[in-house]
Design goal:
Number of helices: 3
Organism: Psychrobacillus lasiicapitis
Number of strands: 0
Helix content: over 70%
Radius of gyration: 11 Å
Largest sheet: none
Structural class: mainly alpha
Keywords: Membrane, Transmembrane, Transmembrane helix
Distance between the termini: 42 Å
Protein name: C4-dicarboxylate ABC transporter
Oligomer: single chain
Order of helices and strands: HHH
Shape: elongated
Number of domains: 1
Length: about 60
């Protein structure tokens, strides 16, 4: 059950990060980073780090434009 919950948190974080590229990047990117940080407590580290990286990119990308 713990591995399944970590997988869900990671995938939801990745989906939020991808949505953040198109709509409200500060909100969705920030939420993806928070979910990624939460996901680091579970065994699926790759999903968590992917969520953190994509969320950070979505968060900071509008500031570069």
């Amino acid at each position: 059950m713990k591995a399944s919950l970590g997988s869900w948190i990671g995938w939801i974080g990745i989906v939020l990060a991808v949505v953040g590229f198109f709509y409200y990047p500060l909100w969705f990117g920030g939420a993806a980073v928070v979910l990624g940080l939460l996901g680091l407590t579970f065994p699926q580290k790759f999903l968590a780090w992917s969520s953190i990286v994509l969320g950070a990119i979505a968060f900071f990308l509008p500031m570069l434009q």
